[in-house]
Structure to design on (345 residues):
């Protein structure tokens, strides 16, 4: 509970992350990273989220930001990753306007929910591009959006993360005002703009992000099921004198474990298949990507569903803010609010 009280990860947790290189899951080994495949990273993220949802969430979001190394210019890569413990945080929203000049951009904007913000050395942010006061459009005639890298001393942080769960993830908002950013600190997150070899940088970003978020929710759900099992088997049925686990609660728990396991098997099967297709062909068909997206959403939604059904059978312990099961419950219901897995298509 120390991290929750601090409202950010503890020094000990950050030391663990650094020693395991968890902020650099997708960073090439030559730059000190683990260079994991997507299925390997997703399984690891699920395991970390089972152990501690706050750590899992920060690792997932910050390792996702460090994955942008694949789109950095060489000089920027060498500068940023010269620090083996460097941490990147950021926001996916296009919350800024970047006025283009010959040698760079002048950026003004604000961005929410940068998980791990207190620990970050750099912040990534998306901006709409403007030139001579006019919005620049791309080939699709939509506003051109480009990504930027800010140094921590260039941003203003706002401790706006005041939610019931994931309290130690410190998803602060940040802003910049008329900040000049040289061209070298801009990049485009797109397979056509990769600068490093590696299949992970070519994999479509949306299903990649969906699968990592779903894995976090799955890990938290698995932990909740473990904790619920302990409570259900210890709790006495006052009326019959038998353990409550021999009745409805035990059946519900068994149904939940079975349902989540089937969904996880489908999720990993589809994710693994998409990765193999991608590595073999450097391309993934739309149906395969859709299957990954749908299984990610199903796993996340059903995890929350089964947790909600079991919650009443866990007694007041589940409602006490100082218990482990309550913390896991709060984390699940906060993580599952992520718009990436809830937006209607």
């Amino acid at each position: 509970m120390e991290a929750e009280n601090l409202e950010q990860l503890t020094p000990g947790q950050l030391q663990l992350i650094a020693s395991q290189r968890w902020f650099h899951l997708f960073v090439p080994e030559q730059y000190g990273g683990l260079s994991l495949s997507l299925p390997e990273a997703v399984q690891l993220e699920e395991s970390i989220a089972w152990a501690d949802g706050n750590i899992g969430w920060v690792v997932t979001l910050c390792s996702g930001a460090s994955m942008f190394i694949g789109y950095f210019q060489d000089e920027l890569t060498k500068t940023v990753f010269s620090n083996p413990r460097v941490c990147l945080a950021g926001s996916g929203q296009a919350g800024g306007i970047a006025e283009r000049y010959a040698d760079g951009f002048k950026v003004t904007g604000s961005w929410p929910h940068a998980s791990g913000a207190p620990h970050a050395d750099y912040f990534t942010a998306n901006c709409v591009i403007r030139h001579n006061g006019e919005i620049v459009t791309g080939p699709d005639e939509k506003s051109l959006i480009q990504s930027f890298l800010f140094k921590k001393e260039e941003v203003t942080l706002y401790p706006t993360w005041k939610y019931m769960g994931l309290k130690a993830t410190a998803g602060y908002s940040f802003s910049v005002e008329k900040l000049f950013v040289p061209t070298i600190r801009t990049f485009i997150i797109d397979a056509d703009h990769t600068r490093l070899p590696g299949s992970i940088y070519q994999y479509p970003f949306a299903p990649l992000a969906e699968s990592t978020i779903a894995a976090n929710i799955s890990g938290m759900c698995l932990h909740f099921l473990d904790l619920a099992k302990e409570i259900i088997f210890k709790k006495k049925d006052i009326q019959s004198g038998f353990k409550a686990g021999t009745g409805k609660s035990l059946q519900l728990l068994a149904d939940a474990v079975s349902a989540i396991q089937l969904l996880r098997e489908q999720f990993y099967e589809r994710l693994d298949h998409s990765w193999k297709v991608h590595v073999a062909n450097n391309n993934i068909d739309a149906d395969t990507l859709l299957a990954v997206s749908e299984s990610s959403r199903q796993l996340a939604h059903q995890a929350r569903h089964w947790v909600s059904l079991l919650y009443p059978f866990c007694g007041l312990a589940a409602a006490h803010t100082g218990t482990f099961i309550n913390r896991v419950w709060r984390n699940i219901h906060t993580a599952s609010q992520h718009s990436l897995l809830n937006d209607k298509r």
